[in-house]
């Protein structure tokens, strides 16, 4: 495909992570050959049925250039989400960058909660219990693997 805009002006190293159940953070770097006055804008669409929305809370670098976005109240659906970052400059056309992302693949899981340990010295055993981490998406019955490190003091 032919991309309108100056070669090397599109953003680089785009990545997103979902954390604390409903927050999402996306970051990028300015294109290597983008003019100094280039400003970038992020649009995203959670699914084909939903409207495309612009980022509401940009992360800026020291030159006031948008280099990321913080999203609140994100919920993970079954469709891939669509991300588009375009740019504007007074000097030249800026290439856009776009990507489809499966949101469940970028979720950083919370730790398990309500961890309790009950040890019985007579039987010489311990029962460790916890609640599974809260997750952003609806597939509540997915398998979790847990690792327990026990250090004896």
Describe the structure.
Helices cover 0% and strands 40% of the residues. With 153 residues, it is mostly beta strands. It has a domain at 12-105: Immunoglobulin-like, CATH 2.60.40. The strands form 3 sheets. The chain has a 4-stranded antiparallel sheet with strand order 1-2-6-5, with no helix packed on it. Strands 4-3-7-8 form a 4-stranded antiparallel sheet, with no helix packed on it. A two-stranded antiparallel sheet has the order 9-10. β7 (81-88) and β8 form a beta hairpin. It is elongated, with a radius of gyration of 22 Å. The model has no long low-confidence stretch (mean pLDDT 89). Keywords: Glycoprotein, Membrane, Receptor, Signal, Transmembrane, Transmembrane helix. InterPro entries: FN3_sf, Ig-like_fold, Short_hematopoietin_rcpt_2_CS, TypeI_recpt_CBD. It comes from Spizella passerina (Chipping sparrow).
Gap from first CA to last CA: 63 Å
| C-alpha Rg (nearest Å) | 22 Å
Biggest β-sheet, characterized? 4 strands, antiparallel
Low-confidence stretches: none
Structural class: mainly beta
Strand order of the largest sheet: 1-2-6-5
H/E element order: EEEEEEEEEE
- CATH architecture heading of the domain at 12-105: Sandwich
Helix content: under 10%
* Proportion of strand residues: 35-45%
- Could you please say which CATH topology of the domain at 12-105 applies here? Immunoglobulin-like
According to DSSP, the number of beta strands is: 10
* Form type: elongated
The level 1 CATH classification of the domain at 12-105 is: Mainly Beta
- Per CATH, the superfamily of the domain at 12-105 is Immunoglobulins
Q: What is the number of helices?
A: 0
What would the average pLDDT be, to the nearest integer? 89
Subcellular location: Membrane
Protein name: CSF2R factor
Membrane topology: Single-pass type I membrane protein
GO molecular function, one term: cytokine receptor activity
